[in-house]
Amino acid sequence: MNKTLNNRAWFMVLPVLLLVAFNAIIPLMTVVNYSVQETFGNNLFFFEGFKWYEQVLTSSRFHASLTRQIIFTLVILAIEIPLGVAVALAMPRSGPWVPVCLVLMALPLLIPWNVVGAMWNIFALPDIGLLGYVINAIGIDYNFTRQPGSAWFTVVLMDVWHWTSLVVLLAYAGLRSIPDAYYQAARIDSASAWSVFRYIQLPKMRRVLTIAVLLRFIDSFMIYTEPFVLTGGGPGNTTTFLSIDLVKAALGEFNLGIAAAMSVIYFLMTLLACWCFYTLMTRGDEQ
Amino acid sequence: MLELKNVSLAVGAENWIDDVSLALSKGTLNVLLGPTLSGKTSLMRLMAGLDRPSSGSVWFDGQDVTGVPVQQRNVAMVYQQFINYPAMTVYENIASPLRVRGADKKHIDAEVRRAAELLKLTPYLDRTPLQLSGGQQQRTALARAIVKNASLVLLDEPLANLDYKLREELREELPKVFAETGAIFVYATTEPHEALLLGGSTATLNEGRVTQFGPTIEVFRKPNDLVTARTFADPPLNTIVLPKKGAKFSLDGGADLPVPVELADIADAAYTIGFQPHHLSLRPPVPGAKALRARVQVTEITGSESFVHVEFGGSRWVMLSHGIVSLEPDETVDVYIDPRHLLVFDMDGNAVRVPDRKAA
Amino acid sequence: MARIDLDHIRHAYTADPRSEADYALKEVHHTFADGTACALLGPSGCGKTTLLNIISGLLRPSDGKVLFDGRDVTALSTEERNIAQVFQFPVVYDTMTVYQNLAFPLRNRGVPEAEVDTRVREIIDMIDLGGMADRRANRLTADSKQKIALGRGLVRSDVNAILFDEPLTVIDPHMKWMLRSQLKQLHRRVGFTMVYVTHDQTEALTFADVVVVMYEGEIVQIGTPAELFERPSHTFVGYFIGSPGMNVLPVKLDGTTARIGEVAVPLPAPVKIENGAKTELGIRPEYLSLGREGAPFAISKIEDIGRQKIVRGTLESHPVAVVVGEDGEIPADARLAFDPAGINIYADSWRVEPEARA
Predict the structure, then answer these.
(1) Pairing of strands B270-275, B343-345
(2) Could you give the angle at the alpha carbon of B223 between the alpha carbons of B222 and B226, nearest 5°?
(3) Touching chains, B (3+ CB pairs < 8 A)
(4) What is the fold of C247-352?
């Protein structure tokens, strides 16, 4: 809210601006460029207008992967956000166990994505993997490489395992910022645990939860590495999410124009969704 | 000399600071008095160069310094929160501005010890701030501001987080400390009582405007308008709107207030009459004063004095009486307004007359 | 509403207190009568908040018992004690309206909705928030929020006591006056037992019928505002209450005369002091006057604070403050006169009751 007058500050942010330019703006422009042209190699390009966009938007394959993507994102948000909040609430607020819990929570976040995929791949194998073996042992027919249901279950479980901690840490930080007086007042007013959650903890966590939902939305919407390593988009196309489909189009089938148009649509959708979330969740917050 | 010329600060559609002009001389103590959100902190940030005014200019010693960043201005600031480097000793905390400047060791030592002596910190130089009481922590912050030898020292409610008695002690010492340095001191507070105890000059602030600036006691006794009078009154100023008819402000029930002699010629109209709580009493202050029948609401006793809250014709007044006054709520009492100390404002809130004590 | 008995309470924050110095709160044995407005007054670290937490049940005392109306509640939790508390920073439920905030404690207790409505409407009027019932609580100013916090206590008919922990800290001076007098009026109307913790003497004295002055974990005096002002039982009370505080001067007693260096001050009655005790005379600035008669007084500074002037100077090289009225004259070479009614004698900092006059 208070602006400083120091113009030298611009030099400080210059490296970041350059980085963003190389990282995001230039590749994005390249993609936009590809999405309106046709190429047959040899660096020959022909302008095609919105032909690729039309093709993508009317293709049933795109619709299918988009639907899968939306369902996946909604499912993991519906699991991770409440679960994360619940775990954060269950964590001790002070004492020697706090650092232990925090480190435990941070562990999954430190594992590289492809390793997570590989880990779960082995873990869930029906014959030798612990998870797969146990599920089959209790009499449920489970094979994620062959059954779509099992594949979905495994992908969702993996994502929950990997990312719920992030929600936990954010929610925990929000909880810790609530002054003790609020809890005391609630006790004096004989508030039930549910009321304390509903009227004190949840309102005070709203900002961090907004951030958690946003981060998880963006990340899950762009998920690639883990399901690629785990299922490769299969069986069939049942776990082919948008990004996997995009890579298939670009590298598998060398449809550069289609893939580029898909990328741009994909990017705009993410942007729009983020904006919607943000305005929705910060509405009436002007104070 | 620090001069603000028609300075404004607009944030969004709101004017946080609205056309403020002030001239503060070297070696003076200037109090900014106003309620929360009246613009005290914003004004200080403009003086310091932390913010740039939306319009107007800031001058220092005849030079336009508008837009010159705070680092180049030799300004020290002390805040309501006790801000020190927690890992450094008190000695190092006080020495830090000199170290930054690269002063030599001997000079630093002499300066630190002098400031520590001035603020009674000598026994604590080897401790860290967390081992000190709140008062000592704030003394450390003050010592650091003094050692800096800044030409402008800004104190933003520096005593607000201290205990009542500690506040009293530090408040008494501060003017002495100020007098020694020759810098321009600016002190923001919400409390009229604090402004009066500090003395110096006072600028009263209301909604981003400076409503009056002058020697503290003069602003208190001769406010230019109703807003200033209200800002500078604790307990709150008592007021009542009365029509003037000839030589009298007529009150209901036949009790009139005489119009002060020097105001005899003003037009017959409605005026807002203001008077301080200690100018309302249970006994006639002058022979022939007319009694008003007021209803007691509540009595607060502080030991030496009593504050009696009374209601008269829809106005709520506070009466300050010496000694212990035991009046029950809803009791009716005769009260008297001291006609020698009336503040008269026209219906736009401008002072028509402020009491001239010599003439009274 | 309840009578509160503090029965030989002591508290130490360390697990195994050995010496007296380990106790943050030294022995307190006192009763607050039903319906009293009581203030706990003292500087930070004096133990007043510890005592408040013991009454509210947040803290269990190391020794002693807390009784509400004769019932031992020492082992009971805050909610079981049926108390209400107003904190330093206003606590309101942000997402609720003013009405819902006030209804909250009643609804939690399963009070029928019709009764909730009558009670809440009554309290909204009482705390002067009529017309704001449906406003969101987080949009209100600090003083209104503090009223809501108070209202949540008042709305319950089963409350034993309402506790206040420096409730005016974040309120502007003008609003402080309003809130303070409203609180006092409310107390008269509802007659709840109220305990108010503060470091601000004005707040304590104006609010309370009984003020408990605490210093370094100990209660140094319990009395009415007038008693604390006129007969401080410890020099600390003299210093802490009153602005400026009481002047304390070392004296030698000689029958009904106190000698400060060369200056002789007549006492209203003889005072008997143990041999070897540090003897001091305490007199408030309000009981000193400047004129042509009296002891030589060197004025160093005059502070005009509007309705009165504070004159600072030295008497026999001891600093002394004198309060002079707004229109009071200060002669050029003023002399200092003592009003015998305002003189108290202290031995080792504790007040000595004068002997009955023969």
Answers:
(1) antiparallel
(2) 140
(3) A, C
(4) OB fold (Dihydrolipoamide Acetyltransferase, E2P) (2.40.50)
Residues 6+ apart with CB under 8 A from C282: C232, C235, C238, C246, C247, C248, C249, C343, C344, C345, C346, C351
C136-142 long-range contacts, CB within 8 A, separation 24+: C136/C94, C136/C95, C136/C96, C136/C97, C137/C92, C137/C93, C137/C94, C137/C96, C137/C97, C137/C98, C137/C101, C138/A287, C138/C92, C138/C94, C138/C95, C139/A287, C140/C92, C140/C98, C141/C175, C142/C90, C142/C170, C142/C171, C142/C175
Query: What confidence tens digit (pLDDT) does each residue in B79-126 have?
Result: 888 888 888 999 999 999 888 888 888 999 998 998 888 888 898 999
The candidate with the shortest Cα–Cα distance to B162, out of A133, C121, C44, C101, is: C44
pLDDT at B317: 92
Residues 6+ apart with CB under 8 A from C349: C234, C235, C236, C278, C280
Place of tokens 């009655």: C269
What are the distances in angstroms from CA C229 to CA B23, B305, C43, C224? Answer: 43, 10, 17, 9
Best to test chain C binding among B206, B304, B311, B328 (most C CBs inside 10 Å): B304
Contact B248, B289 (CB under 8 A): no
Distance from CA of C157 to the nearest CA of B (A): 24
CATH no. of C4-235: 3.40.50.300
The bridge status of strand B292-301 relative to strand C4-11 is unpaired
Structural contact between residues B139 and B120, judged by C-beta atoms closer than 8 angstroms: yes
Give the bridge partners for B78, in sequence order: B155
Q: Which of B163, B165, B181, B215 is closest to B30 using CA atoms?
A: B215
* Residue of C43, C180, C284 with shortest CB distance to B165: C43
Task: List the alpha helices (DSSP H) in chain C.
Answer: 48-56, 98-108, 113-126, 142-154, 173-190, 201-207, 225-230, 235-240
Residue ranges of E strands in B83-216:
152-156, 184-189, 201-206, 209-215
**Interchain contact, A188 vs C77, CB within 8 Å:** no
Q: Which domains does chain A carry? A: 25-58+255-287 (no CATH), 64-241 (1.10.3720.10)
pLDDT tens for B221-261 read 889 999 999 999 888 899 998 888 888 888 766 667 888 77
Which of C114, C93, C115, C112 minimizes the C-alpha distance to C104?
C93
Q: Which residues contact B332 (CB under 8 A, 6 or more apart)?
A: B293, B294, B295, B296
Residue C68: Cβ-neighbour burial (10 angstroms; 0-12, 13-18, 19+): buried
Residue B70 backbone dihedrals phi, psi, to 5 degrees: -60, -35
Q: Which residues of B touch C (CB under 8 A)?
A: 35-36, 133-134, 163-166, 168, 190-193, 196-197, 199, 217, 220-221, 230, 234-236, 276, 278, 297-298, 300-304, 307, 309, 318, 320, 324, 329, 357
End-to-end CA distance of chain C: 46
Distance between CA atoms of residues B42 and B73, nearest Å:
17
pLDDT value at B353 more than 70: no
Q: What is the mean pLDDT of residues A63-89?
A: 91
- pTM given for the model: 0.81
Q: Choosing among A180, A187, A188, which should be mutated to test the C contact, i.e. which has the most C CBs within 10 A? A: A188
In angstroms, rounded to a whole number, what is the distance separating the alpha carbons of residues C246 and C237?
Answer: 9
Using CB atoms, list chains with 3+ pairs below 8 Å to chain A: B, C
Q: Strands B55-60, B209-215: parallel, antiparallel or unpaired by DSSP? A: unpaired
Provide CB contacts within 8 A for B132, sequence distance 6+: B90, B124, B140
Chain A residues whose CB is inside 8 A of the C101 CB are: none
Give the Cα separation of C60 and C32 in Å (integer): 19
What are the boundaries of each domain within chain C?
A: 4-235, 247-352
